[in-house]
Design brief:
mainly alpha; two-stranded antiparallel sheet; 3 helices; 85 residues; disordered N terminus
Length: 85
């Protein structure tokens, strides 16, 4: 899916071009949502805490997946730098 003009996503049963404001997301919001979805779908062992923190950040930033992802990455960076998981 390298051709951005050719990519589509279903929103409320209708196909719309990704990055359109159909659901209120900006193009960066769409990208953040895709990253978040891929993290939450990862069922690798030991990711329960990561999933919990990411869901908590999503709840803290409703409708703004880019802010939720940023908060998650900042929190994760802080935990890694402290040596805590």
């Amino acid at each position: 899916m390298d051709d951005a003009a050719g990519r589509h996503a279903a929103v409320d049963g209708a196909a719309v071009a990704e990055g359109t404001p159909a659901d209120g997301l900006t193009p960066i919001g769409w990208q953040a949502r895709e990253i978040i979805d891929s993290i939450l779908k990862d069922r690798s062992p030991g990711l329960d805490e990561v999933h919990w923190r990411l869901r908590r950040n999503l709840a803290a930033h409703p409708g703004s997946p880019e802010l939720a992802l940023l908060a998650h990455l900042m929190e994760t960076t802080e935990l890694v730098n402290r040596g805590t998981d």
